[in-house]
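Researcher: We plan to redesign the surface later, but first we want a full-length starting point. Tokens attached.
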């Protein structure tokens, strides 16, 4: 059964087009329905951000990240792998029609998102490329409840694509921080930035020790000092 209505006058889609059409349409229709940063948006009226906006912001950030590290000769990353990863990393979440705060994530929920992704993307002729890219985000955790095929791919990524794995983590955490910075700069909200900075700083500090160019180009002393000043007076607890 299709997840979209089929008009009575329409013939069934050709089988060669159907898997791509489903992926193409589901991203546009499902991802805007999943609102991120729920407690801040609902209780503190921060800007509404949905999964589609988040994925687009990650694509923009990732292209700049790849180009900047390459320009300054820190790293030469695999662009297609990283861009596929950031573009589709939340597609499973959209299929399930919910966002889970990072602090509430679990292996069980990660598995649900992974299986939802596999169902939607599994019919694509080069599913192997999207499968590998989607799993990039889970390599640091390597959830034990994922199926053996996924485990084998994550093991391979950990061995062969270490810097792409680290880059995904850095990009994702920096993008979280950018949203919180936006709320501080545009509406004076200290709480969102205080909570995000508290969570992302230890991760970015650790990543900057193993990812060439991160502390020189992105997680700079100037940005850290700015954040430390801007979070003063902010509440690090998630609004309730």
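Model: Full-length starting sequence:
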């Amino acid at each position: 059964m299709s997840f979209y209505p089929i008009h009575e006058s329409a013939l069934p889609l050709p089988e060669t087009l159907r898997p791509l059409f489903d992926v193409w349409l589901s991203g546009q229709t499902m991802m805007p329905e999943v609102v991120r940063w729920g407690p801040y948006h609902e209780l503190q009226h921060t800007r509404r951000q949905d999964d589609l906006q988040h994925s687009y912001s990650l694509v923009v950030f990732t292209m700049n990240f790849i180009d900047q590290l390459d320009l300054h000769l820190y790293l030469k990353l695999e662009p297609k792998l990283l861009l596929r990863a950031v573009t589709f990393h939340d597609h499973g979440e959209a299929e399930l029609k919910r966002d889970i705060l990072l602090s509430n994530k679990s292996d069980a929920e990660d598995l649900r998102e992974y299986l939802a992704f596999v169902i939607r993307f599994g019919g694509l002729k080069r599913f192997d490329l999207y499968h590998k890219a989607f799993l990039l985000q889970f390599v640091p955790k390597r959830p034990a409840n994922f199926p053996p095929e996924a485990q084998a791919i994550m093991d391979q990524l950990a061995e062969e694509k270490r810097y792409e794995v680290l880059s995904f983590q850095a990009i994702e955490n920096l993008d979280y921080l950018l949203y919180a910075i936006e709320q501080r700069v545009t509406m004076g909200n200290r709480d969102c930035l205080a909570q995000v900075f508290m969570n992302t700083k230890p991760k970015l500090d650790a990543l900057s020790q193993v990812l060439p160019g991160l502390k020189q180009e992105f997680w700079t002393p100037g940005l850290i000092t700015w954040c430390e000043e801007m979070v003063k007076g902010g509440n690090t607890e998630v609004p309730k």
